[in-house]
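**User:**
Everyone, produce one record:

**Assistant:**
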Amino acid sequence: MSAADEPPPPLGRIRRRPDYLAAAAGRRFHTGRLTAQGRLREGPGEAEGETGLRFGFTVTKRTGHATERNRIRRRLKAAVELAGAGHAAQPFDVVLIGRREALGAPFALLVDDIRRALAAVTKPRPPGGGRRGQRTES
């Protein structure tokens, strides 16, 4: 089997609170159905087997009862499997925060939202690492 025939690495899961907090400090992308937060994983401190794209899912209690929150989370997980395959080798952590509108949205729209979110939060930082509008000493 050649390198072109090998399947992409499986998408990982974020399971530890510090990883969720670190992703919250990264780039963001918002729609009415979800919010995505993402960061590039750097450094040698990564655990074994966590080399590619990892996802975390959260839905707040304000969104609804447990069954509704679980349905939103399951829909997001299924959409990630379709949308994240092209980015599986990138060392990013992405947290998806589900909104109530994700429950009734067409599944294709959720997949498109996640594709757009991945493009936004995995975009490399501009040279210099500064933020737009940041003041400099004169």
Summary: The CA atoms of residues 25 and 39 lie 8 Å apart.
